[in-house]
Amino acid sequence: MINNQIRTIVLDTETTGMNNFGKPFINHRIIEIGAVEIVNRRFTGNNFHVYLQPNRSIDSNALKIHGITNNFLLDKPLFKTIAKNFFKFIQNSQLVIHNASFDIGFINQEFTLLKNKTIDISKFCCIIDTLKIARKLFPGKKNTLDALCNRYKIKNSHRVLHGALLDAFLLGKLYLLMTGGQESMIFSNNMGNTKNFESYENLKINKKKSLKILKASEEELKLHEKYIKYIQKTKK
Q1: E strands of 40-133, at which residues?
Q2: Per-residue CA distances from 208 to 97, 116, 176, 229 (Å)
Q3: CA-CA to 202 of 20 to 30 Å: which in 60, 173, 214, 225?
Q4: Is 172 exposed, middle or buried (0-12, 13-18, 19+ CB in 10 A)?
């Protein structure tokens, strides 16, 4: 919080691809993180954006979606280089993500691989899934980021390819419109006592006790696959 105001971070990631059988993040890595800060329902301009070297090749289907190439990432930092700053940026915040289980699964994996113990970032942030909000507002309708932008008349013609920072900014606009001032209520219902959160250096998580890692449901995986096919068709 900033001066007793809720600090909202709207986040998106791009990845090397996704596992089609089981957990989406298995054998895949994050290659881009984009996050924008909102305080008192205003964009502050305090953003976090980074491209990452995943130490594995990017799947061809993922390349068609975000356009990030292996060569482009050759000189980019590893996740361990930016992990501390990233954690500090999102810690104690209200973390807003579209289809949150997908991104959180990848983020948890990155920290777990780095710390060599199971990490659940939802213990340090309040996770709000705008896909779930959209489904309640528009049941039975398409609730992709593009569909919601069209519905709320948010200009997104420049979104030819997916990009974490651009998508986070668009999602931030959507979130403010969808919540209509209710984010404080959502925050209080989902957040624990932030005063007791541990620092990045002192994460004391029991290696023997596995924390629950959020993963996409079967329904969410099917929707994600349909979204990918939709994007591919629009580019032909």
Answers
A1: 42-51, 94-97, 126-129
A2: 29, 11, 40, 40
A3: 214
A4: buried
Residue 61, judged by CB atoms within 10 A of its CB (0-12, 13-18, 19+), counts as middle
Q: Give SS3 for 122.
A: helix
- CA distances, 200 to each of 38, 82, 149 (Å): 22, 12, 35
Active site amino acids: 162
Predicted confidence (pLDDT) per residue in 208-232, tens digit: 434 344 445 565 555 555 555 544 5
DSSP letter assigned to residue 206: -
Is the CA virtual torsion 132, 218, 97, 187 positive or negative?
positive
**Quick one: which of 79, 61, 71 has its CA closest to 13?**
79
The C-alpha angle 45, 47, 50, rounded to 5 degrees, equals 150
